[in-house]
Amino acid sequence: MTTRSRPLVLFADDDPTTRSILVPTLEHAGFDVVEAQDGAAAVQAFEREAPELVVLDVIMPRMDGFEACNRIRASDAGASVPVLLVTGLDDIESIHRAYEVGATDFATKPVNPLLLGHRLRYMLRSKRAGDALRLSESGLAAAQRIARLGNWTWDVGSDRFECSQECARLLGAATSEIGRLEDYLVRLHEDDRAWVRTVLESASLDAGSVRYEHRVRTDKGVLHLQGEAEPESDAGGPVQRVSGTIQDVTERVRAEERIRFLAYFDQLTGLPNRLMLTERLTLFLNTARHKKKPLAILFVDFDNFKKVNDTLGHGVGDTLLRLFADRISASIRFTDTVARNRGAVVTDTVARLGGDEFIILLPEVARAEDAGRVANRVLHSLEPPFEIDGREFYISASIGIAVHPSDGDDAEVLLRNADAAMYEAKNRGRNTFQYYAPSLNEMATRRLEMESDLRRAIARNEFTLLYQPQFDARSLDLVGVEALVRWRRPDGVMVAPGEFISLAEDTGLIGAIGDWVLREACAQGRIWNDSLHPELCIAINVSARQIQRRGPQSLDALVLASGISPKNVEIEITESVLMQDTEQTMASLGGLSEIGVRIAIDDFGTGFSSLGYLKRFAVSTLKIDRSFIEGISGNEEDGAIALAVLSLASALNLGTVAEGVETQMQADFLRAHGCRVFQGFLFGRPLPAVEITALLSRRQSTAMALCSSRRLRGRVERS
């Protein structure tokens, strides 16, 4: 595009004399001129030259000035170009037609050459001012569209309401559809109309500038709009107009709602979180004190959730938590959760504290016993299996109950006491509920102290191993030992695993303890294998946390690093570990099998694994849980489960170890039905390494004496 220093005028007239007079005059007045002899040539020249001004004679051959003007106006470039029609006709009809086809102005011949230049400069100045105004309006409209901001003006006296295009768009209307204040108000959310009307009417009474928010329903959902209005008057008189703006603040409102949700609600389950629970509990406690009525909270904990996460992965764990939360919420009757907020009934008094811990808040209970009935209903609601991806999971919970005012008068104390009651429910076997008693705080304090002591014990190496012998069921030869960890405190007290293993699992310390047990047992086993019993098997329990690791700290790497022959190591895992059907679990157990380590399923039959896992993983041994041994009294009916495990093992060609064999009757029954190895107090209690060494030494001495006796007898017979 060529940049011109002088305005370009298209001058069309079929009279050469007229052109010869007027064209030089225009050039002298500061214009550049392109000429045309008729209307058709004028249209072509306009398209080619793009002039800023057009002068057309009306009476021309081929195409008159009216038609030429009409065609120029029909083009995009000619919509705003000033057009002056010149003719010798002076009738009113011709003037009307000139303006109908889009002429900017109309002049009659003869044209004064000096006045023509001034007239065109005026038309050009008006055109440029119009262009600037349109550009400004276009920029304003674009800015409003980008900012999602519209403006409006309300004439109070005439009730005339004018709005910008963006304002109308935000209201879901065309500008032509909004002419009165009511046209604006009717497009607002029905709950906001009366409020906005009051605000604007107060502004019309010179109440000053106001800011307000309202909603608008659109086909894309509900928009949140922020409005501002300001009254206008002339010379301090009454308000004549109210001018205002509305702006789309939907994203801001949603962000604020999201921030509030993050602050007050749990992202995984959508339940209120600890912060909202504490605020609501404090509010309800004030009401309970005023009404002198009891209030109860139920502290609900997902039993064995850590095992679910460790064995099935966090994805399944999160899904179970959501289903668990839904099941609990559905089990609470409306009457258990009555609370009011802004006149509406609030029913979401189930909250998630974090992890697998939930709180059920009962703002009003008639008697403390009612909380127990609610707890029972929650436990019953969890009895049906939870289904995920075609698999069924059975979940239980432990519930602690604290009641105001007997168990505490503020939120913190009630939560702490309900927590203590929940741990007591776990200690009593899980899947039950327990009311708070003052003695439970002592237990909770001891638990915290034990956790601190346990961390110090790991740093100070206060653990030791005992080894429980395992005997061949037929020959009663010592064929293996199971390594059992004990905690010897600095005061000499020996702590049994039942008192600290679950705590170690809950606090994540089990990994460090398990690694120490594996290294220590393998090192001791190597000594026995090298000097006393080359085929003695060392059975070692490992946690899911150890199974999941790869690299230098993986189980197969730790076994190989100890120097023991892998074929003399048996890793014991629980059934729940097999439920983690992942590549990582497969790789870990596969790595152990590849180097020759045997894999045993501990406490078989007490978990929830599928028998298909026995084929998928390289399992070599099933350990029959002691609970199935205790009931054996001599007949097959009493030992039906133990018999079923033995039959299964025989069919799959797996070894069997019976745990907790304490009577000769149990041993005879198990031996008669094919059990291969015994472990229990009938044959030997857990012993320190030095006593196992002595036992192995006696076995070796007996074997050597027997061997010598046979050699001597052979020499006598030969002689």
Give structural notes:
The protein has 26 helices and 29 strands. With 719 residues, the chain is α/β, with parallel strands linked by helices. The chain has 4 domains: 8-142, 3-Layer(aba) Sandwich (Rossmann fold); 148-255, Beta-Lactamase (2-Layer Sandwich), CATH 3.30.450; 269-437, Reverse transcriptase/Diguanylate cyclase domain (Alpha-Beta Plaits), CATH 3.30.70; 451-619 and 686-699, Alpha-Beta Barrel (TIM Barrel). The protein has an 8-stranded mixed beta barrel, surrounded by 4 helices. A 5-stranded parallel beta sheet has the order 2-1-3-4-5, sandwiched between helices. α11 runs antiparallel to α12 (314-331) and α15 (439-460) crosses α16 (497-507). The radius of gyration is 47 Å and the shape is elongated.
